[in-house]
From TrEMBL:
Biological processes per GO annotation: photosynthesis
EC number(s) recorded for this UniProt protein: 2.7.1.40
Protein name as it appears in the record: Pyruvate kinase
PANTHER family: PYRUVATE KINASE (PTHR11817)
Cofactor requirements of the protein: K(+)
NCBIfam families in the record: pyruv_kin (TIGR01064)
Organism: Urochloa decumbens
Record GO terms (molecular function): ATP binding; kinase activity; metal ion binding; pyruvate kinase activity
């Protein structure tokens, strides 16, 4: 029986089944978890635990700390990934057009509701409860009376004691006079200012971002760049051109939608980007609270129809300080899965939270449970309708592979691919079982090296729902004289058995491209 439009429930749904202890999962959720690495997840040991708990993507947030610190963290990630024998993509998160207040003394600044505070571009002024200097000269030109500003060290945590709402009263020259709407204490050396539904004349790709990408990013061959505050398709095109010119042609771009401008141009951005991140922190400020859920559901649905990965942020903020999420947060994670999200992004929860490993494992368990009632048939039909007739050959075969896998209750779908595109195409039809993508290196590349083409494509697949990449080989010493197909199937089935996906007599669907054709076949595992 179909319950909510994106949820399938068996009839009758017995309360006893909900109250029964959850069965231990032998494999991570199909929904991917992005973990932001920082002070509480910096060591090899903690990163290793996060990977084991289900973290699929490691995010490096360059809005804080320097390249040397992030390099040390990345080196630790590589050691941890090697220890647990897992690939893990690196996501570089840009700073973007962020307006910052530098509190040079680090002393707390207490702002009282009803008082006034001046925001000024004169950075020679010391920050205080009366005046806050920013590194942006044109704020007074951008805002008008009645506009809303938001400021805090950790923006959008939902705690109004650490962040402040300001209402613009008037502008005077380059200064902006604001009314303080709530009492709050701003702590730390750095605060961020967000102007709600106001165009800020700063480039989306800042000079700082370019410097980081051209040095740290290029040196480490980052897999994904999260383009903060994406406002137009041109922002994505500009970054693509920059990546091409800095020897990063294979790096994917995930457009981070976090303001009303990005929302207005969402369709064009979606066409240009490799994936989307719905950054609900800033969106929660730019949009009325009653509209946030509608944008999330609409944006995820559009991404699903196009087969582009979509990741949702800000789900378990309370786990920064607590071992368990709130009831609302647990439900929020599940709803993101039921909406069709490819992944959940953990920010402060893993960066500076007290329980980074528990945050990963808890979110993973919620995702896995939600996946058991995900309405795959409904999404399948909608994607088929969206693609239309006549279907392109690859779409037809990918959808057939998923349909066949569900009909024969296959344990997994094995996909052979060079670029990862075939695996993403299969994932588009949301199979209910894992997709094991055997990625073969292009001729001339060395899969043993971190930077090789094949390894880049394999790591990037970890951001896609249900896809688990395996590095294939064309070296006869490794293939043992088997054909490419025989070797690929053996590699996938051995991995499937080792992690508990595939058991004796299970059926597995094989999807591969032979010449200009794509074929699907069923293989039964040996007893």
């Amino acid at each position: 029986m179909q319950g909510a439009s994106h949820m399938l429930l068996e009839e009758p749904l017995r309360l006893a089944s909900v109250l029964a202890p959850a069965k231990p999962k032998v494999f991570p959720s199909l929904t991917k978890i992005v973990g932001t690495l920082g002070p509480k997840s910096h060591s090899v040991e903690v990163i290793q635990e996060c990977l084991t708990a289900g973290m699929s993507v490691a995010r490096f947030d360059f809005s804080w700390m320097d390249a040397a610190y992030h390099q040390e963290t990345l080196d630790n990630l590589r050691k941890a990934a090697q220890n647990v024998k897992k690939l893990c993509p690196v996501m570089l998160d840009t700073l973007g057009p962020e307006i910052q207040v530098h509190n040079s003394t680090g002393e707390p600044i207490e702002l009282k509701a009803g008082n006034h505070v001046i925001i000024t571009p004169d950075i020679s002024k010391a920050p205080s409860a009366e005046i806050l200097p920013i590194k942006f000269a044109d704020l007074a030109k951008a805002v008008k009376k009645g506009d809303t500003l938001f400021m805090g060290q950790y923006l959008f945590t939902g705690s109004e004691t650490t962040s402040v709402w300001l209402e613009v009263v008037e502008t005077s020259g380059e200064n902006v006079n604001c009314l303080v709407k709530n009492t709050a204490t701003l702590a730390g050396h750095l605060f961020t200012l967000h102007a709600s539904q106001v165009h800020i004349s700063l480039p989306t790709l800042s000079e700082y971002d370019k410097q980081v990408i051209s040095t740290w990013g290029s040196r480490n061959s980052v897999d994904i760049i999260s383009l903060s505050h994406t406002r137009s398709a041109e922002d994505v095109r500009e970054l693509k051109t920059f990546l091409q010119s800095h020897d990063l042609p294979d790096t994917q771009i995930y457009a981070k939608i976090e303001n009303s401008e990005g929302l207005d141009h969402f369709d064009e951005i979606l066409k240009e980007a490799d994936g989307i991140i719905i950054s609900r922190g800033d969106l929660g400020i730019d949009l009325p609270p009653e509209n946030v859920f509608m944008f999330q559901k609409t944006a995820i649905h559009k991404c699903n129809l196009e087969g582009k990965p979509v990741i949702v942020t800000r789900v378990v903020d309370s786990m920064i300080d607590n071992l368990r999420p709130t009831r609302a947060e647990a439900t929020d994670v599940a709803n993101a899965v039921l909406d069709g999200s490819d992944g959940i992004l953990l920010g402060a929860e893993t960066l500076r939270g007290l329980y980074p490993v528990d945050a990963v494992s808890t979110v993973g368990r919620i995702c896995a449970e939600a996946e058991t009632v995900y309405n795959q048939p409904l999404l399948f039909k909608k994607v088929m309708w969206h693609v239309g007739d006549p279907m392109p050959h690859e779409e037809s075969v990918a959808s057939a592979a998923v349909g066949s896998a569900i009909k024969v209750k296959a344990a997994a779908i094995v996909v052979f691919t060079f670029s990862g595109r075939a695996a993403r195409l299969v994932s588009k039809y949301r199979p209910t079982m894992p997709v094991l993508a055997v990625i073969f290196p292009r001729e001339g590349s060395d899969p043993s090296k971190w930077r090789s083409y094949g390894t880049n494509q394999a790591r990037q697949c970890f951001a896609v729902r249900g896809v688990y990449p395996l590095m294939g080989s064309t070296d006869e010493a490794e293939t043992g004289g088997l054909t490419k197909e025989e070797y690929g199937i053996k590699l996938a089935l051995n991995y499937g058995r080792s992690v508990g996906i595939v058991k004796p007599f299970d059926r597995v669907i094989i999807f591969e491209k032979i010449g200009d054709s794509s074929v699907v076949k069923i293989v039964e595992c040996e007893g």
